Prior knowledge:
single chain, 694 residues, 9-stranded mixed sheet, 6-stranded mixed sheet, 36% strand
Amino acid sequence: MHIFSEISLWFIPLCLAxxxxxxxxxxxxxxxxxxxxxxxVILLFCLRAFSMSLVCALLLHIFVDIRSKTIEKPTIVFVHxxxxxxxxxxxxxxxxxxxxxxxxxxxAGLEKNYKVAFYQFGxxxxxxxxxxxxxxxxxxxxxxxxxxxxxxxxNIGAIILAxxxxxxxxxxxxxxxxxxxxxxxVYCIALGDSAQQRDxxxxxxxxxxxxxxxxxxxxxxxxxxxxxxxxTSKVQVFNGTQKLxxxxxxxxxxxxxxxxPCTLVAQKAGQIIYRVVIxxxxxxxNRINNEYTFSVEVLDSRRKIALLFEAxxxxxxxxxxxxxxxxxxxxxxxxxxxxxxxxxxxxxVILHGAPSTPAKSAAIFEQIVKHTIxxxxxxxxxxxxxxxxxxxxxxxxxxxxxxEVQARFxxxxxxxxxxxxxxxxxxxxxxxxxPYATLSAQNSLKTLFxxxxxxxxxxxxxxxxxxxxxxxxxxxxxxxxxxxxxHSFRQSNSFEAFDVLVNKIVSYxxxxxxxxxxxVQSKQLFYENQPITMQVQLFNKSFExxxxxxxxxxxxxxxxxxxxxxxxxxxxxxxxxxxxxxxxAYTFTATTTLDNExxxxxxxFTVLPLHIEFRQTRANHALLRQIAQQNGGELFFPSTMHQLxxxxxxxxxxxxxxxxxxxRRSLLxxxxxLILLIVSLAAEWVVRKYEGAQ
Length: 694
């Protein structure tokens, strides 16, 4: 213990002297204590001297450093797989009834010498100690990530992982162990059966998420057959009860894989649900995975984009190839002189180097402005900037001077999102050639990129958007975007950064949305483990948000059963979380009243079954063994896990940690000293009263 003060500690003897002096003045002639024994007087003298000395010492603001030691017992972090794959085989009764008692015994044995923290994982990571083996996904890597976050700088003795080794979400847990820096020993309890059962399953279906009405689209079906050699199986594709495709596969070996190409044609638009079914054979333990459900969003038609140019330029090829990566778009490329189309037939038009002085180019621009067609204008030296005044954009170039500028992202841009990786690639792209000009606009501009001139950030716009009540407009005020596409490939071995930028610009321009006073936003596709959520917006005639209204939503299943709900208001936005629904097709109706008028909006959504846990029936004990070996643990089975406690106790790395800490405290904060002071004064008073003194 170290003692120090704001003033010299040599004042402590002075405090003792003051205390003794005051006591001496009071008791030197035994005032009113002439008949009191000498021993009693000496006792009173000592009590008064102690009290006064302590009071003086407390006034010196003395501090003491108090060292304390604590012992932290090692924590055993027990994480258990709660996914459905654990109980899908023949020994499911053991895991549902006997196994939980074995786990409780194991935890009780560990708690005698260690702290035990029990968690379960599957779809989510939780502290729940009740296992029901109902989770529809398994994410082992998340369990290790959570342990690292929750127990950073804590004394983890060991980690116990109880699982069948099957994971279908997240990364390989071996990599997670390395990346998170977990070095504590991991002891694995291998659940499930590592022997391959007889099984016929649809492993996966590869299909685009978007197709077009009456346009054939291709899917690839991946099927697997285990221990069914010499048998044939039918594979069929259904839409509802309608059979769309059928073929037969033959199992030549004990582990047969087949890839089956299939072409489908959607007859209607919307979210279409398809089922792929493979024939079931006798002896299959798991029959859930004989069926696979997937959905395709069928559109009426592609959005049509026209790319018109004044003269050939490398930028045109870069823009065209970027747009062609999006199957949602159908692009037409033509020079302005050879163009014989109608801009009204297109969802958006891109002009490169136009409008220019030739009459044909100017006439096309006039039609775009007249019919308020969404427009992306890409600058080059032929662009007649004065023509932009017809869009409310005013650019005055000085003596046809140009600058070489790079892009600087505007953090306040909110029309669409770009990933951090894409932003970094685009900001490091080669410079564009831009006109040295001043820009102003009748309408407010939303700038995606500002100009960065020789490393100096400016407030001049490089890529910006403008919108009025009739037309959307965007402009890339620079020439040479083809260099951006090449740079994107050099940086990431992919054109993705540039292609995503162009497609987001074109998507924003070509998507026309009718503004409605009452609108319901909801996904059309959910999985059975996802809650049904909706967002509802309500505006008055001036398109100002309306609050304080009751909005009701009624959801109906295919049988006509109704499920009524009421939206919750959150900052003038109404939200609904209806919870989870069983797989199937649903419709909904949202209603409210505004200005004595009843408003109604209808919609639909589909809930798909999630059977990802049943795609793999064979436990992956090899992975668990690798995890245990990598981190210095061991592999156990349910029949031998009673030996796990002894294995941890024998591990010399699992030890308690002594923590030493120093706490600085003022003497005034030490309650014991104040108690001693009070006791001393009280004792003196009691003795004096007892002896008859005042």
